[in-house]
Automatic annotation (TrEMBL):
<feature type="transmembrane region" description="Helical">
    <location>
        <begin position="229"/>
        <end position="246"/>
    </location>
</feature>
<feature type="transmembrane region" description="Helical">
    <location>
        <begin position="266"/>
        <end position="285"/>
    </location>
</feature>
<dbReference type="GO" id="GO:0080120">
    <property type="term" value="P:CAAX-box protein maturation"/>
</dbReference>
<feature type="transmembrane region" description="Helical">
    <location>
        <begin position="179"/>
        <end position="196"/>
    </location>
</feature>
<feature type="domain" description="CAAX prenyl protease 2/Lysostaphin resistance protein A-like">
    <location>
        <begin position="142"/>
        <end position="240"/>
    </location>
</feature>
<dbReference type="Pfam" id="PF02517">
    <property type="entry name" value="Rce1-like"/>
</dbReference>
<keyword id="KW-0812">Transmembrane</keyword>
<feature type="transmembrane region" description="Helical">
    <location>
        <begin position="138"/>
        <end position="158"/>
    </location>
</feature>
<feature type="transmembrane region" description="Helical">
    <location>
        <begin position="202"/>
        <end position="222"/>
    </location>
</feature>
<keyword id="KW-0378">Hydrolase</keyword>
<feature type="transmembrane region" description="Helical">
    <location>
        <begin position="106"/>
        <end position="126"/>
    </location>
</feature>
<feature type="transmembrane region" description="Helical">
    <location>
        <begin position="62"/>
        <end position="86"/>
    </location>
</feature>
<keyword id="KW-1133">Transmembrane helix</keyword>
<dbReference type="GO" id="GO:0006508">
    <property type="term" value="P:proteolysis"/>
</dbReference>
<keyword id="KW-0645">Protease</keyword>
<feature type="transmembrane region" description="Helical">
    <location>
        <begin position="21"/>
        <end position="42"/>
    </location>
</feature>
<dbReference type="InterPro" id="IPR003675">
    <property type="entry name" value="Rce1/LyrA-like_dom"/>
</dbReference>
Amino acid sequence: MFLEQGIKPENSFWKYLIGSIFIITASFIGQIPFSLAVYFNYNGEGAFPTDNDSAFKIFDPNVTLFLVMASFVFAFAGIWFVVKYLHHQTLLSITTSREKVDWNRILFSFLLWSFFSILSFSFLYFNAPENFVWNFKLVPFLILVVIGSVLIPIQTTTEEYVFRGYLMQGFANLARNKWFPLLMTSLIFGSMHWFNPEVTKMGNIIMIYYIGTGLFLGIITLMDEGMELALGFHAANNLVGALLVTSDWTVFQTHSIFKDLSEPSAGFDVILPVVVVYPILIFIFSKKYNWTNWKERLTGNIKSIKSSN
């Protein structure tokens, strides 16, 4: 079973705290190239950029995307090091309960959410075409495709390994149940988006979407006894979004196909994915993979496992 693979007497929760600090430190190290690039490109005019919003505007969007996404390579290396040398586990053990990673699950989830994303954007576009302009430029877009296809999955995979893999097993070691890891990782995942410019523009109501997305990813991970579906969904969400549409008020601006000119606002459209779309996805996954025993998989207790050492 997925969570049980990390339950060991020697896996005390303080190890996960130390491991988290190590991973965060690795992530900060990965941000050094971007910080140096900002420093050496500062021409002395105006105030030195001290926040992400102003720093991201210094470079071409493709350069910014490359520098920021590259930091996740360091974070992923930090995860591998902590899992192997602090917890004496394999990456597979925090990925899935299966004997090997099920790439078909990742691909199915990726394609399913890509379809939903394109469908929802098409609805918005044809409903209010005046809110969008054609932003396509062949060469910058092709560069975006290359950078995004390589580095965005690394970014999303790193986040999934942190939240749905490492921390979920960590909180399971602490609480010895499944509902507490599910709720805690969802809340922490949502709170990590608190400083995104979308929150400033739309208000705190958008946190329902972020926390709800974390809850959705946690549910499909626990029900499927592995992260594959979450990995595919998250990669599709970020990659398709980066390629399809950009705006001046999102975290990143990209050389996407369209640009959204509308004034951001949060209403039922923010809640819709959480209360309608995500349940539909869960239903599709449950039917395809024959999920059963929902209460036990999502809220059941975890028995202590004796150390194999």
